[in-house]
């Protein structure tokens, strides 16, 4: 652990820390999982390094505040409680990747553990993930601690809005698991779109055929409407011939009657003479 001050001070901090840890219940609540878990991140191997890193950071801030305002002295006295809170925090962390989301759950004591605990549960949908960024600052590199930041797709937000997690044992494996699942999801989406596009030309052929049929029908109707003389000639000419024959017969009968009248008059005049 990070050593501060003399050996007696270190022993006293360890004793208080073990005392606080022994007073709490270490059993974790069983939680229902939504969907199949594809990858589960681990924090246990990095517990000691994470606590050391946070302790060193806390001590540095305390020393600066002692020189500035004197508040750092109270922060040094609070250090055992701080270490207890950090241990309970990292021991309760659960981070896993499902088929559709990244799930992060943590249960941590409040700054004064006698007032209870805080529960945090974060679900990040995989389609909204742009990238998984693995970071390590100078002080983190001294203790082998990494930070993982989940960036969102779309309009760029400030880094404070991204989900940031420290103390993952193997952050690169977690990043690989997320990116692999994202790649598989995009491949599935592309294959579905490709199958739909392959079916669309069939509907297009049927539609064009029907359109051509309707077009041909329309052309036939239009041609009939635009040239009525042709149909009238076929339909009216037989009727006109019959009418002409009837008229000729009537004229012939009239001529015969006229001839008969003329002959009768001629016979009458001959008899008179």
TrEMBL record:
PANTHER family: EXPRESSED PROTEIN (PTHR35410:SF1). InterPro entries: DUF7642 (IPR056059). This is DUF7642 domain-containing protein. It comes from the Eukaryota. It comes from Nelumbo nucifera (Sacred lotus). The keyword Transmembrane applies. The chain crosses the membrane at residues 58-79. Residues 88-186 form the DUF7642 domain. Keywords: Membrane, Transmembrane, Transmembrane helix. The keyword Transmembrane helix applies.
């Amino acid at each position: 652990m990070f050593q501060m001050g003399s050996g007696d001070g270190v022993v006293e901090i360890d004793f208080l820390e073990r005392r606080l840890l022994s007073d709490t219940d270490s059993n974790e609540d069983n939680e229902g999982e939504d969907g199949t878990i594809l990858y589960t991140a681990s924090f246990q191997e990095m517990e000691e390094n994470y606590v050391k890193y946070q302790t060193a950071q806390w001590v540095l801030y305390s020393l600066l505040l002692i020189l500035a305002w004197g508040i750092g002295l109270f922060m040094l006295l609070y250090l055992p409680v701080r270490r207890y809170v950090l241990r309970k925090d990292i021991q309760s962390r659960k981070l896993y990747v499902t088929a559709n989301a990244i799930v992060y759950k943590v249960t941590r004591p409040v700054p004064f553990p006698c007032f209870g605990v805080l529960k945090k549960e974060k679900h990040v949908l995989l389609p909204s993930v742009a990238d998984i960024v693995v970071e390590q600052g100078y002080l983190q590199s001294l203790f082998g601690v990494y930070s993982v930041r989940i960036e969102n797709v779309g309009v760029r937000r400030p880094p404070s809005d991204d989900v940031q997690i420290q103390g993952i044992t193997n952050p690169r494996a977690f990043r690989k698991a997320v990116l692999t699942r994202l790649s598989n999801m995009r491949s599935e989406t592309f294959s579905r779109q490709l199958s739909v596009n392959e079916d669309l030309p069939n509907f297009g052929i049927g539609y064009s055929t029907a359109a051509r049929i309707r077009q041909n029908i329309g052309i036939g109707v239009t041609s009939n409407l635009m040239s009525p003389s042709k149909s009238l000639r076929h339909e009216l000419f037989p009727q006109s011939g019959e009418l002409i024959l009837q008229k000729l017969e009537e004229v012939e009968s009239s001529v015969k009657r006229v001839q008969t009248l003329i002959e009768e008059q001629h016979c009458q005049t001959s008899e008179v003479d």
